[in-house]
Design a protein that fits this description.
Helix 4 packs antiparallel against helix 9 (about 175-195). The protein has a single domain (about 15-220, about 235-430), classed as MFS general substrate transporter like domains (Growth Hormone, Chain: A, Up-down Bundle), CATH 1.20.1250. The protein is an all-alpha fold. The chain is built from 20 helices and no strands. It is globular. The two termini are about 35 Å apart.
Length: about 450
């Protein structure tokens, strides 16, 4: 461990770490959302219907979900930094390559895009389990909820920062430019990550005081070990995770909460264009409003949860109270079916995504309850369940729209139901939140 200027100097390296995780996660979400912003002009050019778009939207989630457990195993074996860095570089490549699908005249655009979206999902699979590992590695328990909320809130900041840019690119420079420039931005993020993010014991700028503070506060400072010292992957752990009622309740809720996320990152801009009659650039700009609300809610949920912990409240109520309040607020999405005014639509969407942001404490919960010896794998199983919603939600909405002649009201009812089920998962099924202890053979 390097201690810079000496033991008396205090550092705040962990704040730089979470800032970089926030930035990288924002780029990751924007890379997923490229198809949403390019989708309308792309579909018009290549005559794709709603169901075909739904399958393209879901392609990312198929591979992202499938690769969760292998990705988590790689994280536990080789450590967060090398696996994450490779992931960022690969997803930047696969994002950029989507700009060139129209040049492959021997392959239908639908097929080439589907394959590249699958590849993007594989590449991004380790990213959020890696975020959770880095937070567990760098942050004491009393700051973990806020730190997790910050990187999770990147899904909203991403919309604010990138959707207007992608909408402008799509409208004035063609849909191909959206993919190309997001690939370039991904490579820039990889460089920054490589320069800043290291484990506490190997970071050049951490002081002894900060190291002692995070270690005494419960940070898993020795979580990452060199590859030569890594433990073999024990796949039997997965069966123990899946047999745990608390975890199953958390997984169910994460599935439902993530369904709302995938609506926002796939169909939302098209909803604004078709159901609310906005142009591509305006839809990109207007989508920033709910995103800002979601960002504020996401950070507020983490801060509130950590504040309750610091005031002596138990782990379960400190995490569950913000989650359940947020899920109740997220039900406001249904109110969009009862107004035709664009301003009111954006208001109700903003309220709903504020609530979803408050409720998005799943990664903080996983940092609290995952078994110490399998944090990456446990996070990956959690993320697998969550992102299974990305497989089904875009496709189901596509079929709803095709079967009903573009009845967006029914699509919003479908999303409203997910908020209700998520409440049941945390409020009834999960029970007391506590760290899982694995059974030894």
């Amino acid at each position: 461990m390097s201690t810079g200027q000496g033991e008396e100097r205090n550092s705040h390296v962990r704040f730089w770490i979470i800032a970089v995780l926030f930035m990288i996660s924002s780029i990751a979400y924007a890379s997923r959302a490229t198809l949403q912003m390019a989708g309308t002009p792309l579909a018009a050019e290549f005559h794709l219907d709603k169901v075909q778009l739904g399958y393209l939207f879901s392609a990312f989630a198929w591979s992202y979900a499938i690769a969760q457990i292998p990705g988590g195993a790689l994280l536990d074996k080789y450590g967060s930094r090398p696996v994450y860095l490779w992931a960022i570089g690969l997803w930047a490549i696969f994002t950029g390559l989507q700009a060139f699908v129209s040049y492959l005249s021997f392959v239908p655009v639908m097929i080439s895009l589907f394959i590249l979206r699958l590849a993007l999902g594989f590449a991004e699979a380790p990213s959020f389990p890696a975020n959770a590992r880095v937070v567990a590695n760098w942050f004491p328990k009393s700051e973990r909820g806020t730190a997790s909320a910050i990187f999770n809130a990147s899904q909203y900041f991403s919309v604010v920062a990138f959707n207007p840019l992608m909408g402008w690119l799509a409208q004035y420079h063609g849909w191909e430019s959206v993919f190309f420039w997001m690939g370039v931005i991904g490579f820039a993020g990889a460089v920054i990550f490589a320069l800043v993010v290291h484990a506490p014991a190997r970071h050049k700028h951490i002081s002894k005081r900060e190291y002692a503070f995070i270690e005494e506060g419960g940070a898993l400072v020795n979580l990452d070990k060199p590859a030569s010292a890594a433990q073999p992957i024990r796949w039997g752990i997965v069966s123990q995770l899946l047999a745990n009622r608390m975890l199953l309740g958390i997984y169910l809720s994460q599935y439902c909460i993530t369904a709302l996320t995938y609506f926002y990152s796939t169909w939302f801009a098209i909803y604004l264009m078709e159901a609310r009659h906005m142009g591509v650039a305006k839809a990109g700009l207007m989508s920033a409003g709910p995103a800002i609300a979601g960002f504020v809610g996401g950070v507020l949920g983490g801060v509130l949860s950590d504040m309750l912990l610091k005031r002596g409240m138990g782990l379960s109520p400190a995490r569950k109270i913000p989650i359940l309040i947020g899920l109740v607020i997220s039900c406001a999405i249904l109110a969009c079916n009862y107004t035709d005014t664009q301003a009111m639509i954006m208001l109700f969407m903003s309220i709903a995504f504020f609530g979803k942001g408050v409720a998005a404490l799943g990664w903080a919960v996983m940092s609290d309850v995952a078994p110490r010896e399998a944090t990456g794998l446990a996070g990956s199983v959690f993320n697998l369940f969550g992102n299974a919603a990305g497989i089904f939600t875009p496709i189901v909405i596509g079929y709803i729209l095709k079967a009903t002649g573009n009845d967006w009201n029914l699509a919003l009812v479908f999303l409203f139901a997910h908020s209700i089920v998520a409440m049941i998962g945390y409020g009834v099924i999960a029970g007391e939140l506590k760290r899982v202890v694995l059974k030894t053979a």
